Amino acid sequence: MAHLKGSQWRESKRALDKKSRAKAKHFDYEGSQEFVDHYTEDADKTGIVIGSALGRISLLADQTQVNCSVSPDAPRHLAKAVVVGDVVALSEFENSLMVSGLTERRNVLSRMRRDATRRSYLGAQEQIIAANIDVAAIVTSAQNPPLHPKFIDRYMILLQHNDIDTVLCLNKGDLATGEERRILDEYNRLGVTTAETSAVDNTGIEKFKDLLRGKVAVFVGQSGVGKTSLINAIDPSASYRTGEVSTSSGRGRHTTSASTLHMWDENSYIIDTPGIRSLEIWDIEKSELQYYYQEFVPFNPDCKYPDCLHLNEPLADCAVKQAINQPNGISQARYESYVKILDEL
Ligand code: GDP
Ligand code: ZN
Description:
The chain has 3 domains: 28-102, CATH 2.40.50.140; 134-272, Rossmann fold (3-Layer(aba) Sandwich), CATH 3.40.50.300; 284-344, Probable gtpase engc, domain 3 (Ribonucleotide Reductase Protein R1, domain 1). It is 25% helix and 25% strand. The protein has 9 helices and 13 strands. It has helices at 6-24, 78-81, 149-161, 178-189, 205-212, 227-234, 286-289, 319-322, 332-344, and strands at 45-53, 56-61, 64-70, 87-93, 96-102, 108-114, 124-131, 135-141, 165-171, 193-196, 216-220, 260-265, 268-272. Residues 171-172, 174-175, 198-200, 223-229, 242-245, 252, 255 line the site of guanosine-5'-diphosphate.
């Protein structure tokens, strides 16, 4: 598999950025994005949003979790618009702390949601899951549930789409065999930062912490891979309740129904949000998908047809297909994952 130099990786990302910018213009964003026009500029005191319910916003301020109402002066629907990771302005109002506004988002983690009931252009709607994210850790497990490279690829596509740095974590390392480690190494060769951990044996935790320290990190990954256990291993004072994996299916159960935002060191936060645990199809054009498989990018200029999808085109005309299983080429598994996802778009 090709090891991409930083410059090549950036090149493929640039191609993507251009495409998504062009596309963004056509979407009729709604929901929380409308608050871009209502950002508050000055805030004496701020808090980081964990979640909201029934018009109240749950947040972390001065390292304490509080539930605040929204001030009457704040934009309408503010409580509905905020997402985990949002930084809100706080002010004293009749002796209680209230949320008075939303500060500008540095970035968002969002996905496109197809919505048949809405007549928006192309029928897609942006759903913001979290804001102000520095890094996303894709948490996988060696066993229970088993490691699925196709899941990893989906998350990687989503995160690249949002231009968010990624760390790939193989948890339950105590159950790992050579096969799972080989898969992890393949991603490492693609330029993805990887880590192996065991929340049970407490191994790899310090290295993993080094990758997350000083950052707002969001944990994504299937239920049951050990996200909650990892938060507890990173900060034993967290003591979140973990779930059992049902033995019959090997699949996890949903145990956390709300987002958590946990501060485990100075300026170091972990967000675990159920919003990202299941992955639906989001909106990417078929012709665009190949740019999310960055190791394809060096080959596609050599395909005969500029709009080659590397699918049914004759082998003689497709440089991407010719690169499969070649030294410094494309792995069979990644190509298959591309074909599978292409089929769903
Ligand atoms: P989450 O749904 O991703 O938050 O997963 P949980 O943290 O709730 O963990 C699901 C199950 O996996 C629990 O029974 C944990 O005890 C178990 N588990 C978590 N981490 C590890 C690990 O590193 N090794 C092993 N063997 N089991 C783990
Ligand atoms: Zn091709």
